[in-house]
Amino acid sequence: MAQSKKDKETLEKLKEVGKEIYRQISSGESPAYELPVRTLNNIYFDKKSFTIKLGDKTSQRQFLNVAHTRKFMQTMLVASEIKKIINEEATVSIRDLYYALKHTIEGTQENTFEDQSESDPIIEDIEASMNLLREELHLAASSKGVIVGNMKIKDGKDTIDLTKMGSGGWGVPSNVEPDKIEIKDLDAEFVLFIEKDAVWKRFNEDKFWQQNKCILITGRGQPSRAERRLVQRINKEYKLPVYALMDADPWGMYIYSVIKQGSISLSYSEEKLATPDTKYIGLTVRDVETFKIPKEVTIKLNKLDEKRLNEMKGYDWFKKKEWQEEFRLMKEKAVKLELEALSKKGIRFITETYLPQKIKSNDFLP
Fold this sequence. Notes:
The protein is an alpha/beta fold. It has helices at 5-26, 69-87, 94-101, 116-130, 197-205, 208-211, 225-238, 250-261, 287-290, 303-313, 321-333, 349-360; strands at residues 32-36, 43-46, 51-54, 58-62, 92-93, 139-140, 146-149, 152-155, 158-161, 170-171, 181-184, 190-194, 214-218, 242-245, 279-282, 299-300, 335-336. The protein folds into two domains: 5-140, Winged helix-like DNA-binding domain superfamily/Winged helix DNA-binding domain (Arc Repressor Mutant, subunit A, Orthogonal Bundle), CATH 1.10.10.10; 146-360, 3-Layer(aba) Sandwich (Dna Topoisomerase Vi A Subunit, Chain: A, domain 2). Helix 8 links the parallel strand 14 (242-245) and strand 15 (279-282). Helix 2 crosses helix 4 (116-130) and helix 3 (94-101) crosses helix 4. It is globular and about 75 Å long.
């Protein structure tokens, strides 16, 4: 099979790294690899793209600096192994990569890697320095999301109809890059990103996607990169709005923010993962009165919730007055709600009344 254009570009970047290290050694210089600084003081919220980004500060990892030597060696090992994997047109897990590279250095009692906690950050360093997703490096991250709706997916030689996935939906693969997954025949008006698997199953069972012409997806809690990347692709390629349906608590609202503008830990790749067009459709504390939700199904905020809420109030991306008012109300009422609380109003209240009314009235948080 001929290598894809993306693979050729990635290999070229890896070769350039090798050539530069070789040039430094040949010139008698101390071999060094330049990396972006991935600390909080080099991360910012870009108000133009509405995503969390990495700043332009860099540092050098030098072989002849004793404090850097081990990590320099590990970086070169990981980069070399990635090149080999791409050349073999294979995809491996980050766990596979760790075991493939772990060995005792000849003539010593020193291992190249003691634990996967050493190799994982090196992968992130290479992603950040080369402006690539790990999926483009042929490394598979975990994926747990499922999706359903009126569209087809071409996965290799297989064409998959997402209207015929039954109650379980189609499992989102770890790599959803365009050279692996092609989106076809999409007929929908919006994407509904649901926090919880149990709630997603209710929407799927009620055929909400069919009656309301939408795509239903869940990351089963905190979504993985694959679900976020796939939603971003649908948004960009088909210009579909994205609505997030989360618990009315600091954790659900933070998950929404990760879908919308990204996470601090992945700031180096958020332009390829975040979907700034995402709107928050619910659940909110305001909904208790609007939809006359019985007070007995609310949950009292605990100290950890309050701490998280106070942190979120200070984030640039939550500074809009609508969010500040929601946070104020949550703190004042000292309550939070789970999506399942809407079942108190009837099993299908969430699919037949709550969400349709929210969409019709454009009742979103920005």
